Amino acid sequence: MIQTKLKINANKECSHIAPEIYGQFSEHLGRCIYEGIYVGEDSDIPNKNGIRTDVVEALKELKVPVLRWPGGCFADEYHWKDGIGPEENRRHMVNSNWGGVVEDNSFGTHEFMDLCEQIGCEPYLAVNMGSGTVAEAADWVEYLTADGESDMAKLRAKNGHKEPWKIKYLGIGNENWGCGGNMSADYYANEYKKYQTFCREYGDNHLYKIACGPSADDYEWTKELLKRVNGCHTRGISLHYYTLPTGDWGHKGSATEFDEKEYYQTIQQTMRMDEVIKGHLAVMDKYDPDHKISLIVDEWGTWYDVEPGMNPGFLYQQNTMRDAIVAAYNLNLFNKHSDRIAMANIAQAVNVLQAMILTQADQLVKTPTYEVFWMYRDHQNATLVESHMLPGMTGTEEVWVPALSESCSIQEKNGEKILTITLSNASLKDPAQIAIELEEGMQFAGEASITELTGEVHAHNTFEQPDCIMHQDKIEQWSGKTKTIEVGPCSVYKVSVHVKA
Ligand code: AHR
């Protein structure tokens, strides 16, 4: 049994938790867009304008705040004009990054904006810098957001959308140190400055421009980039860090078959996210001392071998309780860094990598990762409060990792204060007994709504057994300054409880 104390100062407000930390990513990759999200109007699968109704409903339940599109690596070979106008006239291209399949561009700008409207989320577009042109990028922003009589606005109206859309988040390129053009940081920074200059703001549309930041612990990229782009309308720089069980791209391992050692290695690898974030924030402190630029973790999550028999370029993987622990740990971490992290987008929403949703024909399965995002919804737009806990240690003889993670936030509803506590226990064998202590005269004041997610670490939901891993809810009455709870091994726990002075 792990025994520890969680001390919470609910009066010490630290930072606003941007809802965008709970963002998603949808790329033209494998079966994410086609089959997963878009099936076309003539499909037998229930849809609105070709977009799957079941997927939209599931994403709405998560309160998805923002959706990134069209990539990923795909973004730097995407030419947006191929994806507008009558479907029969749209260009068919080879998706050379992902499986070499033919992309028919039937899902384009209008379909994506419709998807965001159906979900009720902000769009986050990635502009093609790698193989596109400045004029193409400038035209896209004008097409989307300009009102009036310009050719781009008229073209949008001709294609069925007279009113301009609002676009806030605009990424300039993707992984331009790799699939987005193999650029050096100083070359990218110059290109970024050029591209961002011509991505104009029309009417009252304001762009939040995001430069391509580093991969994992490439602090040099962050330094060279920030030296050049700070002050150039840059609001964010991106960070991509994936969790591979052993950190080895050559031997990623199976999503469902792993031993204890590989499990704890995965947890160790995912916990490197903290070190990586702190490393980049230290560089940002130096080159952006006024903190005008935020960190945008716009690709994160687990990356395993594809499921046997699948196209290796489709990145389709199952999702177990191991993924739930990974998700819970990272979301707690992003909450704790919410003073500097303005957005995070897990890769990806449907059928790709650490997905929320898996689909097969008309069936839909919610993954353990979906459950964690559902449990953590109450942190969105809340205020992070100060909390401390010794995390205990767990693991095997060879791999030893902190067992517990936590984050706590407060929000007011109808004049009452509600404290949300989320915890994860990565230990496979030890339950954790946690004495929660409220400091500075605060007390628990009534209803505590508790949700738990637990299961054997390999357990996952399938099309045959979609409800194997599901959260369990209960209500308790909490009072006084302390409350001791037990969090089982391999579990995620959430409580939203009324508190008062
Ligand atoms: O999410 C899958 C891929 O991972 C993205 O296309 C790319 O940006 C990253 O390497």
Give your account of this protein's structure:
This protein has 501 residues and is an alpha/beta fold. It has 2 domains: 126 residues, Immunoglobulin-like, CATH 2.60.40.1180; 295 residues, TIM Barrel. It is built from 9 helices and 25 strands. The strands form 6 sheets. It has a 9-stranded mixed sheet with strand order 23-22-25-20-19-16-1-21-24. It has an 8-stranded parallel barrel with strand order 2-5-8-9-10-11-12-13, surrounded by 4 helices. A two-stranded antiparallel sheet has the order 3-4. Helix 8 runs parallel beside helix 9. The mean pLDDT is 97. Bound molecules: alpha-L-arabinofuranose (AHR).
CATH fold naming of the largest domain: TIM Barrel
Percent of residues in helices comes to 10-25%
Uncertain runs:
none
Using the 3D structure, state the CATH architecture of the largest domain.
Alpha-Beta Barrel
- Main β-sheet description: 9 strands, mixed
Please report the total strand number as a whole number. 25
Work out the helix count.
9
- Associated small molecules: alpha-L-arabinofuranose
* Spatial ordering of strands, largest sheet: 23-22-25-20-19-16-1-21-24
Indicate how many domains the architecture comprises: 2
Overall average pLDDT: 97
- Rg computed from alpha carbons, rounded to a whole number of angstroms: 23 Å
Would you identify the CATH H-level superfamily of the largest domain? Glycosidases
Structural class: alpha/beta
CATH class of the largest domain: Alpha Beta
Q: Which overall shape is indicated by the principal axes computed on the Cα atoms?
A: globular
Question: What gap, in angstroms, lies between the N and C termini?
Answer: 32 Å
What percentage of amino acids are in beta strands? 25-35%
Family: Belongs to the glycosyl hydrolase 51 family.
Protein name: non-reducing end alpha-L-arabinofuranosidase
Catalytic activity: Hydrolysis of terminal non-reducing alpha-L-arabinofuranoside residues in alpha-L-arabinosides
InterPro entries: Alpha-L-AF_C, ASD1_cat, GH, Glyco_hydro_b
